[in-house]
Amino acid sequence: FSFGFRSLTEGKKPDMVFGIFLCRGDITPEICRDCVSFAINDTLIRCPNGKEALVYYDECMLGYADRDILLHPITKTGQLMVNQTNVTANQSDRFNKVVLSSLNEAAVEAGSSPRKFAFKKANYALS
User: Fold this and answer.
1) CB atoms < 10 A from the CB of 122, how many?
2) What are the tens digits of pLDDT across the range 74-116?
3) Which domain holds residue 58?
4) Which residues have a Cβ under 8 Å from the Cβ of 108 and sit 6 or more positions away?
5) Has residue 72 been placed in a domain?
C-alpha cells in the first residue's frame, strides 16, 4: 500500500482472477489500505456473484475480472451510483465547462508530477 498501486493475479486458468487498485497520490498508506479494504467488502456485498467489478471511491479505485484488466479494460457498466446533487438543465453547460477546465488543469499538473497526482478545486455557484 505504500506506493498506492498494485496489480496481481491469482489462481490458474480457467479459475484466474486479475485485480488492481490505485489510491490517490495525496493519502497515507493507512488511508489507502482502509479504502481498498472497504472497496473489496462493499463490492462483495453489492455484486456477490460478479465476475468483474470496477469501483471508484474518493480515495481509491478497485477492479477485478476474470481477464487481465490492464490489457483488456472493463468497459461495460452495471450498477452505477452517482452523486445525488443535481445541476439544473439550464446550468449544465456552464457546470460542464468548469469541470472540463478543472480536469484539463489537473491532467497537465499530474503529468509533470512524480506521483502523477494533482488536485484542483473550482467554485461553482448557481446563478
Assistant:
1) 12
2) 776 666 555 656 777 788 888 889 889 999 999 999 888 877 7
3) 5-65
4) 118
5) no
